[in-house]
Amino acid sequence: MGAQKSIHAGKAKIDVTVDFSHKLCAALMLPSFRSSASALSLVVGSLRIKHPNLFGSRDKLDVSLDKGLCDSNILIAYRRPRAQWLGQKSFIIQHSFSPEVGVHGFPVDNFSRSGSGGVNLSRFSVGVDLNEPSSSNWSSTTSIKFERVCPINDDGHSISRDLDGFPLTSSGTPQDSMVVLKQESRFAKANHRSFTQFSMQIEQGIPVFSKWLIFNRFKFVTSKGLRLGPAFLLTRLTGGSIVGDMAPYQAFAIGGLGSVRGYGEGAVGSGRSCLVANGELRLPVNKLLEAAAFLDCGTDLGSGQHVPGNPSLRHGKPGSGVGLGYGLRFKSRLGQVQVDYAINGFQQKTLYFHISNLAS
Fold first, then answer.
1. pTM for the full model?
2. Cα–Cα–Cα angle for 24, 26, 27, nearest 5°?
């Protein structure tokens, strides 16, 4: 839900978007000092610039900028034309800034919300992506990038330790540097009665210099949808683990919308490993409205204590949690409205309200 305008300047296409829908749900979960801000604090401004024929050689340039009250992201992608059987290669530069709530935030209101721990992350990366040609239902992407991560406090200063004096980086300095080789494989298959999706990501930190991070991190997501008469059953299983060097911000955060509903972001726990299961049964009420019942559960598999500084234990996170509830899904010309009412393991009730655009 928002406003969008496209402007053609020669062969360049500029998309300007102002959208507050993606922040409406987050406002219900953030501390009172942020949710009590004006309505403008919920607005996210998006700028898209696309040039389909840079230098007259069919090279493509995409520039995107997203700016909110507390976070920002800028991405520049340059793509050169290649033969279809070779796949597509992209040169990417990206910088983002966002509050780190999932690991360093502290749970409040019986774990239904996560308060700020005063830690923000500034990330800069530059690298190359290679999208390999799809084969049947499979597709894959290989990338290599240099990344630098800097923890920043709320005053805008670089920091290397949190409010309790525990390290925020693996190197012990105000910044971590790493070269990461990433392989992602995806599978998708669908028909009129069911669908199956699977993705696997493997990241390997390459030891270019002695203080650069060396690690292996993997994550998988598998989803299955099945029609049961008039109803539709959705299931999803997410898991992952990391071995080797690790900074706290690399931990798997469990809890929140898209993870375990009824809990704040990361309020269940944060660990070197995680496993999250989601189930949702949808029943149509009419052509535009669906009722839903859901059950979410997640655990850090006892790995929270192995995260440097043990932020999960220090903030009193349980390490596992279950959330259940019900909701409504409504399709309109403005977008898809999702309302969820969730109860967590501490009997705390949370209302989620989310609007997403139907058109991408």
1. 0.86
2. 65
